[in-house]
Amino acid sequence: MIQHTAPTFPPARLPGRGPGWYRGDPHVHSTRSDGELTPAELVAAARAAGLDFLAATEHNAPMAAGSWAGLGGDDLLVLLGEEVTTATGHWLALGLRPGRLADWTHRVGDPAFAEVLRGVRAEGGLCVAAHPHAPYPGGELMYPLESFDAVEVWNGQWSGDLPWQADNEASLAEWGRRLGADTLAGRPGWQPAVGSSDTHLPGRLGTPQTVVHAEELSAPAVLAALRAGRSWIAESAAVQLEFTAEAAGRSAAVGERLRTAGAPVELALRLSGVPDGSTVHFRTRRGRAHRAPADALLRWHTDAAESGFVRIEVRRPDGRPAALTNPVLLG
């Protein structure tokens, strides 16, 4: 682990559960579909892992009003959702009402797909492309990625003891290329990245986890933070990260846009809880722009015209990620 003096981070838990950083796992399964843990066991595991929220996403199964009743609380938010499991890929419908089921009988090219997405969004829900390059029949996502509100680039289900495999690398690379192409073309929209354990087995919850900056610990606030990309992904609760950009007297954090007025940009990364020998990669729309050994505080300078955005990958000595961020957009 990094042995340097750790920087001060925004507290993960604030009195009254107001604005702050909250850790969660937005893709989990219980015994109500094909998981091995009951809802009560998952909730206990979430608390033990230091999570603030989780999303129950059973395969093509509605969440009855009483399924998770009484299991959450002020310290743990339980979001209701569904893993919409079709013959041509899976996606997550997050923020569903109790008893609500998103239809899963569509296939790629079916007009009903767009109707289902609209229905989820009309209720304030979020549509997430799940494990786009999953290595099993039906798991590879054939729907256009641009159809979704966010993309799951780090999925922990099929990785055994290592929460990162080739399918995740492919998903991250595809997401990164699309992010670069969108900013080069001047398109204002971009899709945030999320990470989740896709837990089916004991001992996997929160590996990885998504850390969001939300106005409060509530379903609308957490979904809004995920939708806006005010988030980053960690391999565990041990990893702490703060990434900011400053220019012309202004500052921005992950998921925000910094108006630079042509001034130089200073990026600052505060980091702890990653293995010794890890490296930090500053990536822009032109690919990897800067690399440095992981340290408690790193700084790097760039400009908006050159970079377009900056995002962070923290890689372990063996190349696996310890953390990934959504971009700070520069303009």
TrEMBL record:
Pfam families in the cross-refs: PHP_C
SMART domains registered for this protein in UniProt: POLIIIAc (SM00481)
GO molecular function, one term: 5'-3' DNA exonuclease activity
Positions of the UniProt region annotated as Disordered: 1-35, 186-206
Basic and acidic residues composition-biased segments: 24-35
Boundaries of every Polymerase/histidinol phosphatase N-terminal domain copy: 24-88
Protein name, UniProt field: Polymerase/histidinol phosphatase N-terminal domain-containing protein
Organism: Kitasatospora setae (strain ATCC 33774 / DSM 43861 / JCM 3304 / KCC A-0304 / NBRC 14216 / KM-6054) (Streptomyces setae)
